[in-house]
Amino acid sequence: MKILLKKNLGREDLRGLPGALARVLPGCKVSRVPGGLCVSSVSPSRAGNALPLVENLPGVAAVSLTDAELCPLACARGPKVFSKPLDFTSRGKVFIAGPCAVEDEESYLASALALKAAGAHALRAAIFKPRSSPYAFQGIGWAGLKIIAKAKKLTGLPLATEATDTRQVERLAGVCDVLQIGARNMRNYELLKEAAAAGRVVLLKRGMRATLREWLLSAEYLLKHGARKLILCERGDSVNAPGQPLLNLELMAAAKKITGLPVLADPSHASKDRLVAAALALKALKAGADGLLMEASLDPLSALVDGRQTVTIETFRAIAGEQCKPRT
Ligand code: PEP
Ligand code: MN
Questions:
Q1: CB within 8 A of 259, min separation 6: which ones?
Q2: Residue 205 near ligand 1, beta carbon < 6 Å
Q3: pLDDT value, residue 314
């Protein structure tokens, strides 16, 4: 913890500060650094609880914590990749593909089989859709559970399904292999806790316009509450202003470097356009993404949601095929 001191600090304040710090953080070590103090030997929960008190001590201008102090589990060094149910240990890229949402059994199973043949390693299997408009298609709900279970049996592929509510987690975890936390729910801390404890892989999307630190903190929630296998996914900020990058590839690379976690890119929701999505997918893979979460189906033109950004099976096959060559 770094404490920035106020300028022109009176002697009294300066003299009283170590004692005041020892009262709010018993056992901490305090040393002088340029412009302030460095406080060490404090656990993350003690630091978190004491922070508002430290900020109010006389003479303190600001208090800051490093990523490693705030998110010790997410930032811990050491291997965090895994081989089941998705293989992030080999040198190949990992592709989770499927329509935005499951709409009906026939079309979903047909797309699932075609995607497997085209190189998918797991299926997007969304039955609940968090839509910005309450009038838009919300997903087929629990009626879709038996459809995705059938797709899993038919293809042998693991399922990645978004949980939009804590009450869905347990039942989804009975069938699905990866629980997806969508961008809108990155900051839904009760959902993070529930998903973390479900014993499944959790895929955490970066919230729209969320900072690296906010993303890391959400990952920390998952790790602290029991998630053993975690995947991050960069999906852009949905700004789409001219000149604005669609995916934040720098932030994606930084998250991968700091956490050591596998990181996917979602070029579909980032671009909202299937032609752009295909090019963006390759760009993200080149920039170090460990794979893609991509909307792809047999019939994007009749999709009830996000058809415009859903690529055809042929395009998906070309992207996956391009990446079959080992990473350099
Ligand atoms: C999705 O992947 O189905 C989705 C809703 O994406 P996001 O949460 O990134 O908007
Ligand atoms: Mn979608």
A1: 74, 75, 80, 216, 219, 232
A2: yes
A3: 98
